[in-house]
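Pasting two entries for a bug report.
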Amino acid sequence: MDGMGDVADPLDAQAIARAAAIDDALAGLASEALPLVSPAYSAKGGASAKQILTLTRTITLVGLAGLFMPAVLFMDLSALALLVFGALILWRASLTLLGAVRRLWPGRKFVRVNDETLPIYTLLVPLYREAETVPGLARAISELDYPPDKLDLKLLIEAGDEATAEALLVERWPHATEILTLPPGIPQTKPRALNFGLQRARGEVTAIYDAEDRPHPSQLRAALQALARGGDRMAGVQAPLKAHNSRETWVAGQWALEYAIHFGLIIPAMTLLRVPIPLGGTSNHFRTDVLRESGGWDAWNVTEDADLGLRLARMGWRFGFISPPTLEEAPESIRVWTAQRSRWLKGFMVTWLVIMREPKRAIRELGLLGFLAAQLSIAGPVLAAIAHGPLAFWCLACLVSGEITLGALGVGLLTAGYAVNAASAILSPGRFRLRRLWLILTLPFYWPLQSIAAVRAVYGLLNAPHFWAKTPHGLTARAPLSLAAAFAE
């Protein structure tokens, strides 16, 4: 009968409907599983009533003290600031020294195993408005030193992102690749997409990559070897992240220097101390069963990486570190940098609130050293970001006016902070060129930008705590001359 070819077979229609219903259910679990099963570990509930009451009382007391005893309040706050930032500088100095010593240790010999013995490896790649980065991603996946038939690649896209979907369809991918489209839902975040992909993961190990990532070809094998040697309580490993466009602008250079310090010194030192590690958002390699046992990512936290690292530590798991890096695109403009940094700071605030809902429980789970390390690693960057701008204005006022002074302790603390950061920049991996010296000398001009991001983060925390401010990619003027040259930097 004419026109019958345009009508779908009823069985096919039913199958499509069932598949759509399954996807809707999985998407619901991707958002709600952790809040339902472990609400104390999820950011969905926001600040607790007790936390809000404590904050209200503190603000009230500070306000009254400022009204009736301003001099006493100023002295007390100054002493508290000196104590807190002194502790942060000492912590940073200790990690820098330990990380630098760790770099001198010879790494374990890499043992290449037969391809037939390798397990299936799941790669989760969330993409949202990333059509420009897809060709480079396809090349990077094809260059991985891993049997393509053992790669379980999940390309995770959002409903309605037709440009990215079309870009994915024209590239060549490993045979078992799946393009998974998330049904519309809230919150529309990267961790929600990752949870959706995790539900269909087939690999023994699961790695996370961003759309713009260019992982070193040997990274998967190195992760497997580290996991095999790490013992029963190792949940996964973190690979270092490097910027391939650090020479494009001053902001990109400062961002790249931060990453060199963080992944070259700080994270390796924290793994040695076995304290909670706020993971990077990409190039994490997890034991899939442990990842599922932990509840996956918190879809309601915009720094799902740092949150997951602390949650795993609270459950008794630890994390390792490997050396083959992943190349990333650094933000080249202050506008893009501020948007990204404000999301990070907002997520750190949310993560800290989650930890501090039940501080006694957190201490019991992490141990005293682990709890203190979490405070310094999560609350520390937020406090520093808030303080940098006012401190810069205060220093400027001291230069202009002879009546205002930082005091001997203030000058000493400021000098020590700069010295520690300069030392960490010098000791961090990478070739030391005149450009790095220039970046070190101009660090005091970079730090106050953090306060701009912090103000935006506080506003976001109060008005849209779960909103994900996406960092645009594919904006750099040029790619590296070669991946090999970029990896060698």
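Entry 2 (this is the one that rendered wrong in the viewer):
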Amino acid sequence: MKIDSAIQHITSVQAKGVKSKPSRDKAAGSAAGSVSDNVELTGTSSLMRELEAQLAELPPEDAGKVESIRQAIADGTFEVDEEAVAEGMVQETIEQLSHQHNR
């Protein structure tokens, strides 16, 4: 995939969710030959930005846990809890089905 086509795809995806408000002064906008759009951010948007900033400050993983798992795999002592894996798969499936149902 070329970079140009990827950028065009991203731009078109972003533009689909954007709604513009008509200019309050249509005559002035027409006379000047320009169009202006207004963007209004909700409280949810501000909260999302705060959460993103907090997440960015967190370490990407628990380095100690990663190292202990890596060592257990290398030693051949790592054991998989099949029941926990199965439960996680069931929960994820329930969440996905619930999300699809709510659409």
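Dev reply: Rendering is fixed now. As a check, the viewer should reflect this: The chain has a mean pLDDT of 77.
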